[in-house]
């Protein structure tokens, strides 16, 4: 029996890991150990997602979260090292670009355990973003890099990473959109519960420090959403960081001018995304999910890792400098071009096939 150890800590990672875990657990002779760092630790950000995504309970729950980037990464490194020494896995899988990703990759690399990075090669080229630091460092200590797009492959090659380490597999989030989109249609009641009609509302998400920790940027976004809400209902699942900062900056009254709700589970979020007229977000994952469901997206950032979406016309960058520009984008309808830059929806099985030789299985090149 060979062992793959999966490290997750944040909601987007739960979704990605669910896809790969399903493929790995279908293989004989492969054991997966699931480690949850605790980076997202409330029920709506963790437990509910595991239930809805049909992910087994974590074998280890480290309970680390709520601190600064340095505190989180350091504590995770220490705790993960203990787990890795106990389990001695054949592979460590890390996902995306969070503190959990970097801590897992560093802990494994220093113990000479092979690291596989799912969603490798993304670049915003903005080193002020903690996520950019995490993803660059993780890519350079990983042994297998699973790139979702051709652009990601080119980024890795440009940085001197050997081509034999890089595999273009497509995007596991597209796998998830196809699989869980159908499940959401069957099980989610969020539209009825909130009194929403399909294509009759704007969905917004806001959580990045660059927007929430800057009182002026946060004011601009919340004022814009409040103004849009006068013409089209705005649904805003409020991230704990956003609510805390809004209260600290005296902006929480603006939350009362939109339909501000608690964070929702994954299936409800999928339904809200699929049926929105347009989405405003600073999340990387939500940008892609909007595209998968062919919903226009306004990205409240200076740049995006998902440049394909901008080129196709489905995504428009709108840095939060003044409310009027955000309002203008959100109230004008548009659609983009057709393309499939993220694969065919079989990224999970492709990743499992590349890992299986090292896990004693019969996988190989697809």
UniProtKB/TrEMBL annotation:
Domain of life: Bacteria
Molecular function as annotated in GO: isomerase activity
Matches recorded under InterPro entries: UDP_GlcNAc_Epimerase_2_dom, WecB-like
Protein name according to UniProt: UDP-N-acetylglucosamine 2-epimerase (Non-hydrolyzing)
Taxonomy of the source species: Bacteria, Thermotogati, Deinococcota, Deinococci, Thermales
UDP-N-acetylglucosamine 2-epimerase domain sequence ranges: 22-355
Database matches in Pfam families: Epimerase_2
Family statement: Belongs to the UDP-N-acetylglucosamine 2-epimerase family.
Species of provenance: Thermus scotoductus
UniProt keyword annotations, A-Z: Isomerase
Gene3D superfamilies: Glycogen Phosphorylase B
UniProt keyword annotation of Isomerase present: yes
């Amino acid at each position: 029996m060979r062992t793959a150890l999966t490290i997750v800590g944040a909601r987007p990672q739960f979704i990605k890991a669910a896809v790969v875990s399903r493929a790995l657990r279908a293989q004989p002779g492969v054991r997966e150990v699931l480690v949850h760092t605790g980076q997202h630790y409330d029920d709506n950000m963790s437990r509910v997602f595991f239930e809805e995504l049909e992910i087994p309970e974590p074998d280890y729950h480290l309970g680390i979260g709520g601190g600064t980037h340095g505190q989180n990464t350091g504590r995770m490194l220490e705790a993960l090292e203990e787990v890795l020494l106990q389990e001695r896995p054949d592979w460590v899988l890390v996902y995306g670009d969070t503190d959990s990703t970097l801590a897992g990759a560093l802990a494994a690399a220093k113990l000479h355990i092979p690291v596989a990075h799912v969603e490798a090669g993304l670049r915003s080229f903005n080193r002020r973003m903690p996520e950019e630091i995490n993803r660059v460092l993780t890519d350079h200590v990983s042994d297998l890099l699973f790139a979702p797009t051709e652009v990601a492959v080119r980024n890795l090659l440009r940085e001197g990473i050997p081509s034999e380490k890089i595999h273009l597999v497509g995007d596991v989030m597209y796998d998830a959109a196809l699989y869980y989109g159908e499940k959401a249609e069957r099980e989610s009641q969020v539209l009825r519960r909130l009194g929403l009609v399909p294509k009759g509302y704007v969905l917004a998400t806001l959580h990045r420090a660059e927007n929430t920790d800057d009182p002026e940027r946060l004011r601009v976004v919340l004022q814009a959403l409040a103004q849009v809400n006068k013409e089209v209902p705005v649904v805003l699942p409020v991230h704990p960081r956003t609510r805390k900062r809004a209260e600290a900056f005296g902006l929480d009254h603006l939350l009362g001018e939109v339909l501000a709700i608690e964070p929702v589970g994954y299936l409800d979020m999928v339904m809200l995304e699929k049926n929105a007229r347009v989405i405003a977000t600073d999340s990387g994952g939500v940008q892609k999910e909007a595209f998968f469901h062919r919903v226009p997206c306004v990205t409240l950032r200076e740049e995006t890792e998902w440049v394909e979406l901008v080129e196709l016309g489905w995504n428009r960058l709108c840095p939060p400098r003044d409310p009027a520009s955000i309002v203008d984008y959100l109230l004008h309808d548009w659609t983009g071009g057709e393309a499939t830059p993220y694969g065919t929806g079989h990224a999970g099985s492709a990743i499992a096939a590349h890992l299986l030789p090292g896990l004693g299985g019969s996988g190989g090149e697809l």
